Amino acid sequence: MAIQYKAYEFRIYSLISQFDQLLEDLKDSNHYRHWKEKISQMKDDLETRRFRIAVMGEFNRGKTSFVNALLGKKILPEDYVPTTAAMNRITYSDTPDSYVIFKDGRRKQVPISNLAEYVTKLTEQSAQNAAEIEEAVVEYPSLLCRNGVDLIDTPGLNDEDAMNTVTISKLESIDLALIAVDPSMPFSMTECSFTVKLLESAQISQIVFIVTKIDMLRERERERAVRELHRRIRENVEEELLRKYSEDGEVLQKYHEIFDTLQVFPVSSLDAMDALSCGDMDAYRKSGFWELNNRLPDIVMRSQNRNTVLKPVRELKSQLGQVRQWIEKREQEQQEHLKLRLKELEQVFNKTGQNGIADVFVKACGDINKVFPMAENVASAYISSFEQALNKINCRSYDELKKAFAPVIRQLYQTFNQTFHQKEIFFLTQYQAGTLMMRGKWSCRQLDELLQPYPELHKAMQLELAELYKRFSFCDISVQREAFFWAKSPIPEYTVFGTNQDIMSHVKSALIRSIQDYQRRRNKELGQMIEDSQEKLNQQFQLCEEKLSLVIPEYLQLLHARRKKGSMSLAAKLSNLEKEISQLSDDFLSELQC
Hints:
Blueprint: H1 5-22, H2 32-48, E1 51-56, H3 63-71, E2 88-92, E3 97-102, E4 107-109, H4 116-119, H5 124-131, E5 133-140, E6 149-153, H6 161-168, E7 176-181, H7 189-200, E8 206-211, H8 219-244, H9 250-259, E9 263-266, H10 269-278, H11 281-286, H12 289-357, H13 362-368, H14 375-391, H15 398-451, H16 455-460, H17 462-470, H18 500-593
């Protein structure tokens, strides 16, 4: 039963279209354009059935002469010395024509007879021209090149490094390789290594060896030489592969698929061209090209049919693998990037907070001293009460003095306690409502704005930030722990009882000393309260730091789970697509084996 290639092509086209749709979720990838170009190329290859045959091998193996003989006419420039310096591609056209494509994308029409000026090393100028050429294209009515087949002549290996680079760079665009070998130089290590590279290339599906210049051997030696070369090629390539790969690996499987039925064609390009020039068909048969021309189209057709299915399958699998790797890499990069951002956020948050709360209350320590005027001024304001009491005494006795001063002393004790305390509360309340709240709003707003780009972190930290704002306040400002009292009695000792002037001097001294003592004790207590307030603010911010360090890992896990869920959805679609591709490949290979 014949394989329904068209049915497979329709299935493949559908899978490519599905892949194309999945890529719409990956527009942010810097590989997006590359993947889209690959899809476009796969669709184009399916529609045109484009198939590329490359003639490859070491320099001076007669590759260009072989191509000309295969075409039946000297189309490409050739010489006895290594000649080809650029890729020459022959494609089908009813009318012969040729042009060159430069590496910068320019295209120039060139007569076939003038191609040597652009693709060879025959002159210094032609070599310079060839260095700027991407490829030369010859359109020619060759039967071999019908149905989307291109025949490519490549520069020889081991000639120059630049030529090696040109040839090896084209491996991924070649479907079938015709390797030219010389019967007088049995399969070299370079040729063996290059053959291994061809087998390693996922693109290449078939390899055929062409023994060029077979006319250099006597007819009776040719069959034995070809048989020995056939054995040497198989054994050397397998030995090289076994050094690098396991026996059940894909490359060894590909080796057996191709080399277990290895095709080797001995030909003489010189004899073939001579025979064609004089119409000698017997000589043409002896040249080997008769058999080659009879069998090569079938090899190409089978390889082309096979590649029409398996090539896009391989390419799709490769692109899917790249997409999977990109998704995994993107996930890792996003996670690492987010970790760095959150680590930086934590550092900035901590530094901003520390700067915002550092020494918030320190200024209050200096400002609190401004609540009270100097003790001398306070004493002067209240000394008149004692003077009035002293002037009312009729009998200047110590007892009378004590009796007159007693109510004044009690009254001033009460007045001082009330006045001083009220002034303190007023100052601290105003300072708290003004300076502290403004500083708190500014500091907490800065921290809040840092967290806003991360909604979950922002929400998780609101309680701690609210508590932090509350801590921009004094502790227990209405509590009066230290009261005013007379550190020195305003009533002089009996032993110093004397004139009015001496009494008032003593009273003033007692007032000043008592007021100074109160201010010293109260300032110390207020200083401690300020330190306690600063400490509570510091402690609350430390709780903020600790809370943020705890919620950041949770936030990372949350975002990772979200991205993974989104990635899993795409990954599941990619996985289903891979299964369909593998099923198609298995179905096709099963039919091929039947």
